[in-house]
Write a structure and sequence with these properties.
alpha/beta, Rossmann fold, Argininosuccinate synthetase, chain A, domain 2, 3 domains, five-stranded antiparallel β-sheet, 13 helices
Length: 404
C-alpha cells in the first residue's frame, strides 16, 4: 500500500519496543486509521505485558497479548524437526519457523476485529517482510498490507528516537545509544545480526551470547540425558513426559549450560544479498542430533535417503516464507508418514559444545544384530554378495571395454 490510501483498521504485529511503537504512532498519523495491536509470546524470554501499558498510553482500545509457546513448538518447530530441515547446511530456521504463526494470528485477529489491513516492522532489506507478507496473502488474498520501513523517511536510529521524543513515546535508556547488533528471540533460538557483526571477519564479542555459555567456559563435566520419541516428536527427557514448549525450554537450559548451539554463519537471503548472523539454538541442536539418531534405526534406507533428498527443498521453502504453500504441505505429509515409525529412546552426552549420541533403541528398530554381526551367523549367505556386485558392475565393465 501507499500512504494516503483508505484504511479503516489495521492489525499491527507489536513488540512494544522502539520500532513498533513508532510504527503504531506513524500509522495513526499517516493513515488516520484505528490500530489493533497483537503481541505474541513465543518464548523470547522477556516480559510482554508491558506492551499492553504502552499500547494503552498510545490510545489503543483493542489489544491482543497471547501466549503461543505451545502452539509454536507443537505446530511449527516440531514439524520442521520431523523433516530434519536445515538451511544451507547450518541454520536451524529459528526465525523462519516463527513468522508464519504470527502472520496467521494477525489475519485471524483482522477477521475478528473487522480490520482491513495488517502491518509489520520488518525492513525492506530482510527476509521477514517476505515471510510475513506471503503468509498474509496465503491466508487472505485481499488483505491490505502496510510495511512502514518501505514507505517512511525514518531511515536511522536517530530519526526514530527524534520521532519518538516528538510524539512523547517512552524510550528505554538502552535504546538511546546505538546497540551493537539487532537481536530476535523465540523459544527455538536467538539471532544476532547487523552493526558490530556486519564484517564477517570480525570475531563477535562474548557479550553477544545470551542463551549459550561459550563452549570454552562450559563445565568440565559431562551431562548425560535421554530423549524419548513418539511419531518423530520428542515427548520426554530422562523419562519425564513434558509438553512441547516445556521440553524445548528444558533442552535450551541443558544445551545452553553446556555451550551447545552457537553458529556464526553467512547465509543467502531470499532477496539476493548475503547476511552474517550469530545464532544460538541450544535445545534445537540437541533435538536435531537426537532425532537423526532415532531415525537411523527406525527408517528404511530408501525412505531415509528419499527424505534426505527432499530436505533441502523443504528448508528453502520455509526459509523463503512459503510455509502455507501446497508444496511445503505435500512434503510435510510425506515426512509425517515416514515419522510414524520414529519411536524410541536416544541417549546423549553433552560436553563443551558437543552433542554425542551414545545409544538408541526402538520397538520399531530395523537394526538386526544377527544380520550385521562379524561372528558366524545363519541368516546371511556371504556368497550372495558376488552376484550383487557383478550385476552392479555390469555397466562399468561395458564402458571400459568400449573405451569409456
Amino acid at each position: 500500500m501507499k500512504m494516503g490510501q483508505d484504511v479503516n483498521k489495521v492489525v499491527l504485529a507489536y513488540s512494544g519496543g522502539l520500532d513498533t511503537s513508532v510504527i503504531l504512532k506513524w500509522l495513526q498519523e499517516n493513515y488516520g486509521c484505528e490500530v489493533v495491536t497483537f503481541t505474541a509470546d513465543l518464548g523470547q524470554g522477556e516480559e510482554i505485558e508491558p506492551a499492553r501499558a504502552k499500547a494503552e498510553m498510545l490510545g489503543i482500545k483493542e489489544i491482543y497479548i497471547e501466549d503461543l509457546r505451545e502452539e509454536f513448538v507443537r505446530d511449527y518447530v516440531f514439524p520442521v524437526f520431523r523433516a530434519g530441515a536445515i538451511y544451507e547446511g547450518t541454520y536451524l530456521l529459528g526465525t523462519s519457523c516463527a513468522r508464519p504463526l504470527i502472520a496467521k494470528r494477525q489475519i485471524e485477529i483482522a477477521a475478528e476485529t473487522g480490520a482491513d489491513a495488517v502491518a509489520h516492522g520488518a525492513t525492506g532489506k530482510g527476509n521477514d517482510q517476505v515471510r510475513f507478507e506471503l503468509g498474509y496473502y496465503a491466508l487472505n488474498p485481499d488483505i491490505n498490507i502496510i510495511a512502514p520501513w518501505r514507505e517512511w523517511e525514518l531511515t536511522s536510529r536517530t530519526t526514530l528516537i527524534d520521532y519518538a521524543e516528538k510524539h512523547q513515546i517512552p524510550i528505554p535508556k538502552d535504546k538511546r545509544g546505538e546497540p551493537p547488533y539487532s537481536q530476535d528471540a523465540n523459544l527455538l533460538h536467538i539471532s544476532s545480526e547487523g552493526k558490530a557483526l556486519e564484517d564477517p571477519w570480525v570475531e563477535p564479542d562474548e557479550t553477544v551470547y545470551t542463551r549459550v555459555v561459550p563452549p570454552w567456559r562450559a563445565p568440565d563435566e559431562v551431562t548425560e540425558i535421554t530423549i524419548d520419541f513418539k511419531g518423530g516428536n520428542p515427548v520426554a527427557i530422562n523419562g519425564q513426559k513434558l509438553s512441547p514448549a516445556e521440553l524445548l525450554a528444558q533442552l535450551n537450559e541443558l544445551g545452553g549450560a553446556n555451550g551447545i548451539g552457537i553458529d556464526d554463519i553467512v547465509e543467502n537471503r531470499f532477496i539476493g544479498m548475503k547476511s552474517r548472523g550469530v545464532y544460538e539454538t541450544p535445545g534445537g541442536t540437541i533435538l536435531f542430533t537426537a532425532h537423526r539418531a532415532m531415525e537411523s534405526i527406525t527408517l528404511d534406507g530408501g525412505a531415509m535417503h528419499q527424505k534426505d533428498e527432499l530436505m533441502p527443498r523443504y528448508a528453502e521453502l520455509l526459509y523463503n516464507g512459503f510455509w502455507f504453500a501446497p508444496e511445503r504441505e505435500m512434503l510435510q505429509a510425506l515426512v509425517d508418514e515416514a515419522s510414524r515409525r520414529v519411536n524410541g529412546t536416544v541417549r546423549l552426552k553433552l560436553y563443551k559444545g558437543n552433542v554425542m549420541v551414545t545409544g538408541r533403541k526402538s520397538p520399531n528398530s530395523l537394526y538386526d544384530a544377527d544380520m550385521v554381526t562379524f561372528e558366524e551367523d545363519s541368516v546371511y549367505n556371504q556368497r550372495d554378495a558376488e552376484g550383487f556386485i557383478r550385476l552392479n558392475a555390469l555397466r562399468l565393465r561395458l564402458l571400459n571395454r568400449l573405451g569409456g
